[in-house]
Amino acid sequence: MPSEAQKKTLAEMAEGLTELGRVNQLRCLRRVDGVNFCSNDYLGLAEDPRLKQAILNSVENAARIGGTGSRLLSGHDTVWDELECEFAEFAGTESAIYFSSGYAANVGLLTTVLRKEDLVFSDEFNHASLIDGLRLSGARRVIYPHLNLNALEQNLRAREHDLCRKVIVTESVFSMDGDIADLKTMQEMAARFGASLIVDEAHAAGVHGPGGAGMVAQAGLTREVLAVMHACGKALASAGGFVCGSQTLRQCLVNHARTLIFSTAMPAYFAGQISAALKMAKEMNREREILLSNSRSFTASLRADGWDVSERESQIIPVIIGSNEDAMDAARFLQERGFAIRAIRPPTVPEGSARLRLSLTARIPAKELQRLRECLNDWRKLKERFIFANVAARA
Questions:
Q1: Is 301 within 8 Å of 373 (Cβ atoms)?
Q2: How far is the C-alpha of 162 from the C-alpha of 203, rounded, in Å?
Q3: Which site among 34, 43, 362, 394 is 20 to 30 Å from 67 CA-CA?
Q4: Rounded to 5 degrees, what are φ and ψ at 126?
């Protein structure tokens, strides 16, 4: 029988869940159906039969199908060395090291690079994995307003003479807003004020830059930044993430990154999936052109209709609704019309900015984008009529 202490703990947990439901913030796990605007499979590789066949071949040729231990014990295989060299070449860096998730990569990187006496400058909208890595590092944190380079420069100048390691941390393409950091200017600031730059390319890898190599490569900064994280679970339709940088950085991560040292290695055959996805993605310039062209035209049409959307062009389009209730209602309305769209609410995004996060992929045809535009406008008209009817009733 559960103890009284356990019953009390579970009762408190249930009470917390009830409160989440009351404020319309209770989340659940369910499959998405319909035209998928929730997916990060930006190039459509997750449904590509060539990648499926490559995985089957890799499994067939594998000596074992389990990781069996951490890479520092029994889990290492030479296929990971080969893949890391391949990925470093793709990223344009001296070396790369693979982690079992992008989350683990960011946490491992930041807790290795940063010490308690160090100073880190972090965009307020950085991903949770970056935030958690910074917290676990114990480093002093300066959070600057989202993409506000004037504020970043002021903070850097105010601490220019601090005798400590200083690091700027940012996403390149931001996951919730789809806007893009000015990496070239940020690197110039870093160099001027004695800091280093770390960039999370999770939503840029495979989509932006030469051959999909990301925004750091596009800016020509691959040998200047301290580290770049590329996620494999999005455009590359796989899992895990690579921290790319110098050979010295790689060796430090092998020796100090707890999320690498104390994690069971991924099975060796999985390296075959990532390698195949990487080779395919590098050649998918047409898909990248279609995706970003559709994104530009669709964003422009939404803006013309009066929707609050991002000012920068990427494959992620946030439609800011405002309240949790309205965002949930809009999502339900669109789901009933065959769209897989979900509302994004606080604490994932700031209070009052609940939204529909539209994640475009190369497989979504233009006609579905037009249909979505029409349905969004239909929902707004219904909402306006409902508000008008309520005002009239109270009058």
A1: yes
A2: 33
A3: 43
A4: -60, 155
End-to-end CA distance of the chain: 59
Active site residue 172: no
CA dist 148 and 123 (Å) reads 8
DSSP 219-262: TT-TTTSSEEEEESSSTTSS--EEEEE-HHHHHHHHHH-HHHHT
Helix (H, G, I), strand (E, B) or coil at 116: coil
266: left (phi over 0), alpha (psi -120 to 50) or beta: beta
- Known catalytic membership, residue 122: no
Q: Two tokens at 135?
A: 């917290």
The 3-state DSSP composition of the chain as helix, strand, coil percent (nearest 5) reads: 45, 15, 35
In the numeric block, the tokens 């940020």 are attached to 186
Q: What's the half-sphere exposure (Cβ side, CA atoms, 13 Å) at 285?
A: 4
Other beta carbons less than 10 A from residue 258's beta carbon: 13
| pTM, two decimal places | 0.92
State the catalytic residue, choosing from 166, 208, 230, 234. Answer: 234
Tokens 């999770």 belong to which residue?
A: 202
Contact 224, 185 (CB under 8 A): no
Amino acid at 303: R
Question: In sequence order, what are the residues at sequence separation of 6 or more whose Cβ sits closer than 8 angstroms to the Cβ of residue 19?
Answer: none
Give whole-number Cα distances, 360 to 124, 214, 238, in Å. 24, 17, 18
Which residue in 77, 179, 203, 310 is the catalytic one?
203
pLDDT per residue over 173-193, tens digit each? 999 889 999 999 999 999 999
Per the annotation, the verdict on 285 as an active-site residue is no
Residue 171 appears among annotated catalytic residues: yes
Whose tokens are 């100048």? That residue is 157
Q: Could you read off the pLDDT of 338-395 as tens digits, one per residue?
A: 999 999 888 888 888 899 999 999 999 999 999 999 999 999 999 887 665 555 555 5
CB 339 within 8 A of CB 380: no
Q: Which residue of the set 127, 166, 208, 230 is catalytic?
A: 127
Annotated active-site residue in 39, 40, 58, 196: 40
- Beta strands 227-231 and 241-245: pairing type? antiparallel
b (16+ CB within 10 A) / e for 215-248: bbbbbebbebbbbbbbbbbbbbbbbbbbbbbeee
Distance set, CA 297 to CA 103, 151, 225, 304 (Å): 32, 32, 33, 11
DSSP code for 209: S
208 is annotated as an active-site residue: no
Contact status, residue 82 vs residue 278, Cβ threshold 8 Å: no
